[in-house]
Design a protein that fits this description.
alpha/beta; eight-stranded parallel beta sheet; 12 helices
Amino acid sequence: MRDLDKYKGVIPAFYACYDGEGEISPERVRALTRLHVEKGVKGVYVNGSSGECIYLSVEDRKTVLENVMAEAKGKLTVIAHVACNNTKDSVELAKHAEALGVDAIAAIPPIYFRLPEYAIADYWNAMSAAASNTDFIIYNIPQLAGVALTQSLYEKMRENPRVIGVKNSSMPVQDIQMFCAAGGEDYIVFNGPDEQFISGRVMGAKGGIGGTYGAMPELFLKLDELVVAQDMEKACKLQYAINEIIYKMCSCHGNMYGVIKEILRINEDLDLGGVRSPLAPLIPSDMPIVAEAAAMIRGAIEKYCA
């Protein structure tokens, strides 16, 4: 039986942190890591979708992870997403992540070309072999990657002893149940879509990795607590409140991660910069909406976490 406890709970997806010139800021990466430690989350998921990974260079991603690890070692579970759209760079990042001592690496499938399943398996196994002492997590996000993790591909990947489970961001919660049933107790499934955290947990997910957790970790920690306590009436009310906040954040012209970073500036006095082009920056008309979302978070924390 694997020891999967270090992965169970609330794991925010880590945001890209830029300086005034739009370059990765080591100081701001460390500041965000410290905030996650202070908030008491289980871990962080670094250089994934929320970290704008497809717009970062290999060196950018190394810089982010190095500075996360400098602050997080021993305090947070660290999962490093290492997938690039070619095997060579992915293997380089996998080796780098293992050298830093991360708990696990993770990867989406290659995007653009629709590869056969055996080629996707070869791609994942190549980066796993490059980090041969590190757990490996499959990242299933078909609505963005264009490729879905099938039961047959998951079965093939479980032949790799380093594979420990799936970060499942597909929208049907049924997928979580299927991956849980296929892997059993020796594997872990993470809920991906933040708007259905409780649904994923009820269907068998043992933890969650989410892009909005970092904006309101207190609310997701409380939500997880309510699910564990099986207080589903309160959990549903809190999930609805969280969803209203997410809908508000998604109503801006600017990209949602730009919105979240501005919320963190308002609520936590933390400046993480903007977003990297071609993601849309915030515009003046977004600011009242951002302020409203920030206030909604503060109000929900007061109501549900006091």
